[in-house]
Every structure is written in structure tokens, then in C-alpha cells.
Amino acid sequence: MSGTKSLALLNFMMVTLNFTWIILMDNSFFFGNSINTAISSYPTYLTPAPITFKIWSFLSANMILVGILMFIASRNEAENPRTVLKIKKIGNLLILNQLFCGLSMVLKMNNHFILSVICSSACLITILMINKRIEIHKLVSNSFIRYFIRLGFGVYTGWMIILMAFNSVTILAKFELVSSSSELFWLNVAVLLACTAYGIYYTITHYLPAVSAVLAWGIFGILIQNIKQPHFIDPDMKPYLYVMLFACILATLYSFYLCNVRRKLQEGFNEFPPSIS
Fold this sequence. Notes:
Number of helices: 10
Structural class: mainly alpha
Number of strands: 0
Strand content: under 5%
Order of helices and strands: HHHHHHHHHH
């Protein structure tokens, strides 16, 4: 087996094992509680509804499919030179990313939130590095493999960004680092605004509507919790959530439009390449 095949197979195995492990954890197989239960133990204005975390199943299925497609492509390097190049560029970074991701979940389930946030930060950083290495902003063609690579890594990126919002404010609540609910409220607003602004910026600059779509899902989950069973009544978080949800939806639609424009430009370039004089 060639080096590229071995790397693709190892990445696939690591992704499959890690995300299966996370799904089992979220269903209380190992530590007696779910991801939502762990976060809800220290309620904040950003604590999402339980349904929000069901996205782990969708994310897992996408990333496992990406691993399968990459392994299949690696078996015939001559027919899939670009995908093979992406695998080589990723190297062992996806394996490292999965270690950080899995460790962050174990630490969270065992109430070690500071260490969990550190690992989550490392997980987000490594996924951003992977996106840069594979030049994900250029993968806008209608290729089946490219579509799912963009979808998988886009959903993963968006989810890690919104998770940083959930997790960081949970630390504030757990260690009682703020003196009043008003102070906690404005810190929650600031954290969510920063994550949303970065996610929208990343969506538009990298032609990844999946990122802002997942942000919208996360904000929607927070909104549902604040409507049905708010942990805090005053101040009211809902107006800010509506604004940020609307901004994420607009960013998703605009990024999708930009993807179509870029795709048409690429197709036109491929059909009429510049002549060499």
C-alpha cells in the first residue's frame, strides 16, 4: 500500500472511531450523561436546547463520508491527482485534530471545562489549518468528491466556532467569574457576537455557506431554549439572537451566490483557457 493510501486509510479510521465515540458519549453510553447535560449543568444565556447537539450525527456522517471518498480516491492516483494532492497536504493534521476533538469531549463530560476549551481551541485551529492547506475556497466545482469535502469541513468548522461560544461562557458560569447576571449577559452577547462575526467573515471569504448555516443552527438552538425554558428572564437575550440568526441566514445565501459566481468563472476559464503566445 502506497504512502498516500496508508494516510487516507488512517485518516478514515481515525475519523470513524472518533465520531462514533462522540455519538456514543452523547447518548450517555460512557459517562452517564449527554453533552447537553454537561453544558446545562452551568446555565448561561447561550445554553442551547438539547436538539442542537443532534448535529453531531450529521457532522459525523459527513466526515466519515469524506474519509471514505478520500480513501477511494487514493487507490487510483492517476485518475484523482488533485484529491491525492489534498490528502498529502492534510498529512497527519486530521489525525491530530481528531485527538483534540475527542479529548475535548472527554474532558467536558468529566467537568474539566477549562482543559476542554483549550482542546476545543486546538481542534478549531487545526481544522482551519486543514482548510488552508487544501485551499477549500477553491473547491467550488460540481465534483462529487469536492462537494462533500467542502460540506464536511464546512459543517465541522462552523460547529467548532459556535461550540467555542457555548463552552467559553460555560466557564464564566461554572467558576462564577462575573458578579451579576447583567455582566454575564453582556459578556455572553459579546462572545456570541465575536463568534458570529468571525463565522460570517470566514463564510464569505472562503465560499463556505455551510459555516454560517451551522452558526444559524446553533443560534436557533439557543433561541429555542430562551423561548421555551429560559435560564434567565432579564435581560432578554432573544432580540440579539434574532438579529444574529438573520445575519447568518443572509450570509449563507450570499455565500451560496458567490459560490455559483465563482463556479461559473472557473467553468468559463476551463472552457476558454488563456492562449499562450
